[in-house]
Amino acid sequence: MKLLVIFALCVVSSFSLELQTVSNFDEAIKQAKQKNKNLLVFMHSEHCPWCTKMKDTTLKDTETIEFINNRYIFVSLDKDTDKYPKHLKPEIIPTTYLIDQNTQDIKYTLYGYKPTEYLINELWDE
């Protein structure tokens, strides 16, 4: 069933999609509350090859883009230069957090590079 939904989303949006990204945590919280969506926070570093791979593959994949844009406010933060809440302290990068829009609590954490299928399967029920 999951694959059927993903396939249908891809067919409907066969044109080039862009990941709607926010790069400020406070702004993302405002948008999340307005749109009643949780945050998906991607923590990365400029010098991390796995972060670059995830940005260049998974986060540019049309299935991933459609999935994230429909369900979350996507936040991309550099762990070395951007401001973010203290409870988001990634020891491994990339780290992807699912954050509750109201409490700002971490609901789920994914460590390391994740290909599209893995990312979607892990977040499907969250």
Number of structurally distinct domains: 1
- Residue-averaged pLDDT, rounded? 90
What is the helix/strand order?
Answer: HEHEHHEEEH
**Helix segment tally:** 5
Shape: globular
The CATH topology annotation reads as Glutaredoxin
Strands across the major sheet, in which order?
Answer: 1-3-2-4-5
- The radius of gyration is 14 Å
The portion of residues forming beta strands comes to 15-25%
Structure explained in plain terms:
- It is a single chain.
- The protein is 38% helix and 21% strand.
- It has 126 residues and is of the alpha/beta class.
- The chain has a single domain, classed as Glutaredoxin (3-Layer(aba) Sandwich), CATH 3.40.30.
- Strands 1-3-2-4-5 form a 5-stranded mixed sheet, with helices on both faces.
- A hairpin with a 6-residue loop joins strand 4 and strand 5.
- Helix 1 packs across helix 4.
